[in-house]
C-alpha cells in the first residue's frame, strides 16, 4: 500500500506521514521535484528516486509493504501513481488562521521572522493555485480529505487511529462494499420526487438484478407526473411502487433454492408489503457502511 499525502501549507502532511511511519509500520518514499533543486546526495539515500517511473517500479515489486510519500509535485506524477491499485491519495487541510499560527511557530523555532497574515494568504494562494504547480488540482482528486483541526500531536494521533487510514477496503472493496456501491450507482437513475433508492439482488456473490424506485416500465416517470401519489409529492409519496411486486415475487421464488440478499442504502425503510415479498422469496435485506471517504473532520478537542 502506498499513501500519498498532499494539501495546503502547514496543514499537517508531515505529521500524518510521521504517524503512519511510527505507529502503522509505513516507510517513507522520496521523489525529487521536477526542477533540479535537490542535492544528489539525498537521491542516493534508500527509498529516494529521481523519477516517478523508478518509484512506481519499486513499489510495484513491493506492493504488500506499507509506503508513504509527500512528494507528489504535479498531476503528471499523480496520474502515474493512480494507475497502481495499491495507491491511495489523501489530502490534509486545516483552517487558514490555524495554519498561519503553525507556520509562525515553525519559523520561531528556526529563529526566523514569521509572515503577516496577508503574506501567508499570498503564500497559500501561490501554493494552491499556481498555474503549473498548484496543489488544488491534486486535493480535488483525493480519495480521503482530512481537515486537521487538532491542537497537538497526541490528539492528531488519536483521531487518525480511529479513522484507520491503512484499511485495505479503501483500495479494493470487499463484497459487501462492492454491492453497496452498485446499489448507490443504481439509485442515481431514480426519478422519484421524494428519495433516491437503489438496490442490488445478489446470490452467491453474483448480481442477479439491479433496480431503483420509480414508476413501472412504459409509464410516465414520477418527475414527469406519472406517479399516482404525485399530488402529495413532497408530503406522502410512497417510497415503494407496489405495481411491480407480482413480477418480483415470481423472480424471488425462483431464487429461493439458494440464499439471496438485497443490498440497499442504509436509510431505506421497507414497507410491510416489501418486507412480505422479501420474506416469501427467502431474500434477506443487507445494509453496509464502508470506510469513510471524502471529507473527514478530525477532532479538535
Short description:
By secondary structure, the protein is α/β, with parallel strands linked by helices.
DSSP helix fraction: 25-40%
Question: What is the 3D form?
Answer: elongated
Mean pLDDT: 79
Largest sheet: 6 strands, parallel
> Total strand count, please?
12
| Quaternary state of the chains | single chain
Helix-and-strand structural type = alpha/beta
Q: Numbering strands along the chain, what is their spatial order in the largest sheet?
A: 2-5-1-6-7-12
* Parts with pLDDT < 50 across at least 5 consecutive residues: 38-44, 230-247
Which value, in Å, is the CA radius of gyration?
Answer: 25 Å
Short key terms for the protein model shown above:
six-stranded parallel β-sheet, four-stranded mixed β-sheet, 11 helices, alpha/beta, 301 residues
Give a description of the structure.
With 301 residues, the chain is an alpha/beta fold. Helix content is 36%, strand content 17%. The protein has 11 helices and 12 strands. The protein has helices at residues 13-24, 40-43, 52-60, 75-82, 96-109, 117-129, 136-140, 153-163, 175-187, 245-254, 272-281; strands at residues 2-7, 27-28, 30-31, 48-49, 67-69, 87-93, 144-147, 198-203, 206-212, 260-264, 283-286, 294-297. It has a 6-stranded parallel beta sheet. Strands 9-8-10-11 form a 4-stranded mixed beta sheet. Strands 3-4 form a two-stranded parallel sheet. β8 (198-203) and β9 (206-212) form a beta hairpin. α10 (245-254) packs parallel to α11 (272-281). The longest helix is centred in the middle third of the chain and has 14 residues, at 96-109. The two termini are 31 Å apart. Mean pLDDT is 79; it is low at 38-44 and 230-247.
Amino acid at each position: 500500500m502506498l499513501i500519498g499525502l498532499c494539501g495546503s501549507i502547514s496543514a499537517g502532511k508531515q505529521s500524518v506521514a510521521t504517524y503512519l511511519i511510527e505507529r502503522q509500520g509505513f516507510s517513507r518514499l522520496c521523489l525529487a521535484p521536477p526542477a533540479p533543486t535537490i542535492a544528489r546526495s539525498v537521491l542516493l539515500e534508500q527509498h529516494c528516486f529521481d523519477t516517478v517511473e523508478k518509484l512506481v517500479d519499486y513499489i510495484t515489486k513491493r506492493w504488500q509493504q506499507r509506503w508513504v510519500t509527500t512528494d507528489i509535485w504535479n498531476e503528471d506524477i499523480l496520474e502515474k501513481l493512480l494507475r497502481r491499485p495499491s495507491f491511495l491519495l489523501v489530502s490534509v487541510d486545516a483552517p487558514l488562521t490555524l495554519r498561519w499560527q503553525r507556520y509562525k511557530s515553525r519559523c520561531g523555532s528556526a529563529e526566523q521572522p514569521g509572515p503577516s497574515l496577508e503574506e501567508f494568504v499570498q503564500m497559500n494562494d501561490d501554493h494552491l493555485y499556481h498555474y503549473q504547480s498548484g496543489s488544488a488540482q491534486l486535493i480535488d482528486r483525493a480519495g480521503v480529505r482530512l481537515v486537521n483541526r487538532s491542537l497537538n500531536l497526541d490528539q492528531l494521533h488519536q483521531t487518525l487511529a480511529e479513522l484507520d487510514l491503512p484499511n485495505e477496503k479503501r483500495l479494493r472493496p470487499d463484497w459487501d462494499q462492492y454491492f453497496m456501491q452498485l446499489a448507490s450507482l443504481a439509485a442515481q437513475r431514480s426519478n422519484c420526487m421524494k428519495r433516491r433508492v437503489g438496490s442490488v439482488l445478489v446470490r452467491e456473490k453474483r448480481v442477479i438484478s439491479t433496480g431503483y424506485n420509480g414508476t413501472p416500465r412504459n409509464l410516465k416517470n414520477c418527475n414527469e407526473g406519472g406517479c399516482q401519489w404525485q399530488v402529495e409529492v413532497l408530503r406522502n409519496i410512497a417510497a415503494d411502487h407496489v405495481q411491480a411486486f407480482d413480477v418480483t415475487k415470481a423472480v424471488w421464488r425462483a431464487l429461493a433454492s439458494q440464499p439471496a440478499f438485497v443490498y440497499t442504502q442504509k436509510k431505506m425503510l421497507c414497507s410491510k408489503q416489501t418486507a412480505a415479498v422479501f420474506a416469501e422469496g427467502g431474500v434477506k435485506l443487507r445494509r453496509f457502511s464502508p470506510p469513510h471517504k471524502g471529507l473527514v473532520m478530525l477532532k479538535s478537542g
